[in-house]
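Q: For a teaching session next week I want to show students how multiple molecules come together into a single three-dimensional assembly. I've collected the sequence lines for a complex. Could you give me the predicted C-alpha cells for the whole thing so I can convert them for display?
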Amino acid sequence: MADDLQSIRQRLADNLRRLRTEQGWSQEQLAALAGLHHNHISAIERCKLSVGIDVLEKLALTFGVTAGELLD
Amino acid sequence: MADDLQSIRQRLADNLRRLRTEQGWSQEQLAALAGLHHNHISAIERCKLSVGIDVLEKLALTFGVTAGELLD
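A: Of course. Below is the structure for the complete assembly, covering every listed component.
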C-alpha cells in the first residue's frame, strides 16, 4: 500500500488506541459507546480498514474530539 | 441521516468545493490530479458518500493540506 495511505491508517490506529486506553476502555466498550461492532474497532486498530467519515465522526463524538484530531 | 453524520459530509463537501474552486479546477481536473474518478468528486460534493480515509488522504495530499483540514 502506498506509504501515505498506510500512514493515515496508522495515525488513526495510534490515536484511537491512545484515546481508548486513556479512558481505560476495551475495544468492546468503545464499540458499544460508539454504536459500532467490536470487530470494526479491532480492524481499525490493525490498519485493515479505510474507515468511512461517518464512522470517524461517531468515534470523534464518543471521545469528544474533532475528526481531524483522530487523523492528524 | 443523523445530524452529526450529515455535518461531517457537509463540512467535507464545503471544504472540497472551496479548495477546488480556489485552484480554478473542475471536478474532472481534481479527480485526475488525485487519481480518482470524477463521479467520486461529484458524489462527495453532494454529500452522497461516507468517504474512506484512503481517499481523504489522496485529496489532502493533492491540495497540500492535512486530512483534518478537509473535515473540520
